[in-house]
Amino acid sequence: MNLFDFSSMWPALNRLLQSAERCHLVGMVFTFYLCLGSLYAETVSLDLGDGVKMEFVWIPVDGNDGQRRIEIGDFTGVHAKEPNQSQQIWGPFSISKQGWGYYLGKTEVSEAQWAMVMGEGHRSQTPIVGKKYLEIQAFVETLNFKAERGSFPNFPQTADGATGVIRLPNEAEWEYAARGGDNQSYAASDPYKGDLERHEVFSSPTGGGQAREVASKQANSLGIFDMLGNVREFVEGSYTIGGRVGGYIIKGGSFATEGKEIRASMRAEQPRTEKSGQASRSGDVGFRVCISSDVFTSLDQAKKLSDKLKVDAETKSSEDRRRLDTIPPKQKAGSDTEVDGSMGSVKICL
Hints:
- By secondary structure, the protein is of the alpha+beta class.
- It is 28% helix and 22% strand.
- The protein contains 8 helices and 14 strands.
C-alpha cells in the first residue's frame, strides 16, 4: 500500500468506518484519517504560472535540533568510487508534531518548469537535461529571487521568520531521501527489494532508450519520483575522493543504466570542462532542487548556535580528558618526543 496514494487506502478505511459506525467510533476514525493525511501529505507547491507548478516533499530529519548523522556510500566495499562515509544532515524547518526537516523536489525539474522560470525551451513533462552547471545555478537564483519578492505564498520560513533558500541538494541530503529517509543500506542490485520496474526508468527491453515524463512510475516511500532512474542528477558540491577534488557530483542512474547497477550510493564525476574548453553537459543528466535555509538567519539564532558549539566543544574536551585519565601512568610518562638514533625513527609517547 502506498501511503501517499490515499485513493488506494480508501477501501480499507471505508471498511473500518463501517465497523466503527456500529461501535460509535466514527469520530475516532475520521480523526485517524486526517492525522494520517497530515503526517504523509506535507508538501510545498510553487505556482510558476500558466498552470505549471513545482512541488516539494517534506523530508523528516529525526535528531537534535534537526541535525542527524547518517552513513552514505557503498556499505559493501565493492564500489571504490562510492566510499562509505559518515555525514551530517540538517533540517532547518520545524513542523508541528513532525519535528525537523527539509523539502526536496517531488520530481526532477521538467522542461515545462524550466521554460516558465527561464523563459526558454519546450513545455513538456520530460526532465530538462543537457544544461551546464552554471545554467542550473542561474535557474536556482531566479527561483530564489521570486521567493524573496513574495511570488510564492506560504513559502517555507525558519522559526525566526527567515525565508527559505532553494538550491541543489548536497550528496548526503540526496542519498538520505533516495533511501527513503532510512539509514540502512539498499542491496546494491535491488534497491526496491524486487520491485525496481515499478519505481524507476532504466535500461531494459521496455525502457524505450530515452527519458520518460517525470512521475511516470511509482514514488519511493517518501513520495519522491525517479530518484534512482530516468535521468542522473547534479547535486551541490565538488566530486571528492581520497582527498582529491575534481568535477561535479552526479547521483543516481538513468534510462541508460542497467537495472543491476541501480543503487542509492551510485555516483559519478562530471568534468567541469570538455576537451574543447567549453563547460561540460550531458544528455542524460538533469537535476532536482531542495528548500533549505542559510545557517545564520538572525543574530539570536547565531548566538544560540555559537553557544551550542561552545558547549559541544567543552563536552568533547571533558570526554578527551576522561579518556586520558584511563591511560596507565607509565604510558603517560615521557610526553616529550623521543628519537631513536640507532633506527633513525621518531617515537611519539603520549
